[in-house]
Amino acid sequence: MAEPTEGRAWIVVFLAIVDFCCVLQAAERYDRGQALVGTYWLVAGVTFSVAGYKWPALKKRVAGINWAGWKRRITVAFYSALGLSLAFAFLTARACYRELFERGQHSAQQPVAGPPSNNKPMESQVSQSQSPAPSSQKKPTSGPIPITSTAVPQLSRVDWHDIHNWRKYLHAGMTKTQVRQLFGEPERMSVVGTMEFWEYGSGEIDIDVEDKPGGSLWLWSEPH
Fold first, then answer.
1. Is residue 97 part of a domain?
2. Do 168 and 76 fall within a single domain?
3. Strands across the sheet containing 188-192
4. Residue-range definition of the domain harbouring residue 203
5. H helices within 65-138, ranges in order?
6. Is-contact 55 7, C-beta < 8 A?
7. CB within 8 A of 36, min separation 6: which ones?
8. What band does 107 get if pLDDT is binned at 50, 70 and 90?
9. What H or E segment, with its residue span, contains residue 57?
10. For residue 111, is it within any domain?
11. Which tens digit of pLDDT belongs to each residue from 26-61?
């Protein structure tokens, strides 16, 4: 008796779509330098591809077992396991991304030295600008209160080829203007949603353009 092709066709198409999505995820991870996560996605894509290619043999082997009342339940369990495996792969990739984000937040909490042109750290400049005026200075008794503004320090250009400059000067929260002043224009730039990816050689700087008007540095990976 010939096997009906209608049921087989949509299963093969479904597995092919899942395989294609996994390959796209693997390519994106490899492009970002995340080789381990990219390998996981590639292995998952190959697995689904082989399952789609061997589906008639797999179905025939399962059908050969005399599980009259269990066939429907096994089918439901198979697709449930398939959905759980996809969810597990997604959560694993998300956990890796969160780990990179926490590393960026941890590096932002550490004191960062200013560029060579600045003789004092930024924290001391801000504290001095916010310190009270000397007692000899007269305070205004009437009229509007004067507002003092603290200018953003001008960053000096450094060589982005030196990874020590990445570790010394980059920190989370920097604006796009500050990154340009520090490293210059990127060699390549791509935009995905609200994220901009600036590439300097094999290094990459991820900037969230939705966080604040001038953008906010979120993550970075040093050049090899």
1. yes
2. no
3. 188-192, 195-200, 203-208, 216-221
4. 152-224
5. 71-109, 122-130
6. no
7. 96
8. low
9. helix 55-63
10. no
11. 888 888 788 888 898 888 888 888 887 777 777 777
